[in-house]
Amino acid sequence: MKFLVTGGAGFIGSAVCRHLIRNTAHSVVNLDKLTYAANLASLEPISNDPRYSFAKLDIRDREAVGELLRVEEIDVVMHLAAESHVDRSIDGPGEFIGTNVVGTFDLLEAARGYWTKLSGERRAAFRFHHVSTDEVYGDLPLDGGLFTEDTAYAPSSPYSASKAASDHLAMAWHHTYGMPVVLSNCSNNYGPYHFPEKLIPLMILNGLEGKDLPVYGKGENVRDWLYVEDHARALEMIATRGEVGRSYNVGGRNERSNLDVVHDICDALDKLAPRKDGKSRREQITFVADRPGHDLRYAIDATRLETELGWQAQETFATGLEKTVAWFLENEEWWRPLRERYSGKRLGQT
Ligand code: NAD
């Protein structure tokens, strides 16, 4: 099959492109506008593969996207393009509405125009997979409960509200126009090629450089972490075998408080790249004023994905984190230019 991956130059999109090219026989057209969050260097491992190509386009350019769908004879649209950083959505929500809500509407319309004209097997096989976040569900108390696919939406931030709106649009295009849409909502991702302003890479790189490790509030907020390559495998399964009109939660059952995550990073760094003075990097931790509207806890019940599609996370948080820290230690040429451009501008929490 031929996939159109939107946002394929971002963190998760590039992992999806690498996964599809390395581990499957599918072809990939990567459509990306190349915002600040994009990095074509993340595609270098597959950029010469004849099954991979790149198109610099905005999802809001309906006409050009429709033309690309036709020329490339796309079978699956996997939609990841988005503004994705919660802190940026608090500072400037407009971009989030423009890309995540209006952009998803434009893409759905381009896809509907294309799908309507397909016939026979190609029409039956076509899928539009909208990729979303568990943040649409709002938050959970610290002492229990999990998000299931039946949890009511209650987004807190401009980011999660824009994603919630786009989820509703995607499902409405299925219910109203019969378009074959599948939806997935995933917990926090981490792994190689993660943009250096996000929590885990920021803490790894600040830790390495002897800088402060700034933690919001008391670091009690809990997130459910998933290694990005486990997410990429789940997305391929959902796009190709998921039931149309259904949503799938994706999560690794790896709940950690932010402070635990930072402690784990300090310990992994101390093991793989000890400080010259022999001290623990935990000494670099500082506590800063909390983010407004900071959700307390997210935790995913991924039973549907596990039982219906047979997906299992392959990494625990310990194994995935060690791989991630090792990757950042070995790939300074990837992160150094981004770090110099964006260092210190954000706290990097998710
Ligand atoms: P990212 O910010 O790393 O990448 C987003 C990509 O989208 C960038 O390459 C950017 O250039 C591109 N893009 C932005 N606006 C565009 C436009 N108008 N047209 C074309 N391309 C555009 O994001 P990510 O962390 O890889 O997240 C990808 C998707 O997965 C998002 O939809 C996000 O909501 C969702 N998600 C992310 C996480 C996470 O932990 N990062 C968890 C669950 C779901």
Automatic annotation (TrEMBL):
Coiled-coil annotation reads none
What's the domain of life for this entry? Answer: Bacteria
Kindly give the InterPro entries that the UniProt entry links to this protein: dTDP_Gluc_deHydtase, NAD(P)-bd_dom, NAD(P)-bd_dom_sf
Entry cofactors: NAD(+)
User: What Pfam families does the entry give?
Assistant: GDP_Man_Dehyd (PF16363)
E.C. designation(s): 4.2.1.46
Keyword set, alphabetical order: Lyase, NAD
Q: Name the reaction it catalyses.
A: dTDP-alpha-D-glucose = dTDP-4-dehydro-6-deoxy-alpha-D-glucose + H2O
Q: Which GO terms describe its molecular function?
A: dTDP-glucose 4,6-dehydratase activity
Domain NAD(P)-binding: where?
4-324
* Family named by the database record: Belongs to the NAD(P)-dependent epimerase/dehydratase family. dTDP-glucose dehydratase subfamily.
Q: Sorted alphabetically, which NCBIfam families does this protein's record hold?
A: dTDP_gluc_dehyt
Protein name, please? dTDP-glucose 4,6-dehydratase
Q: Which organism is it from?
A: Jiella mangrovi
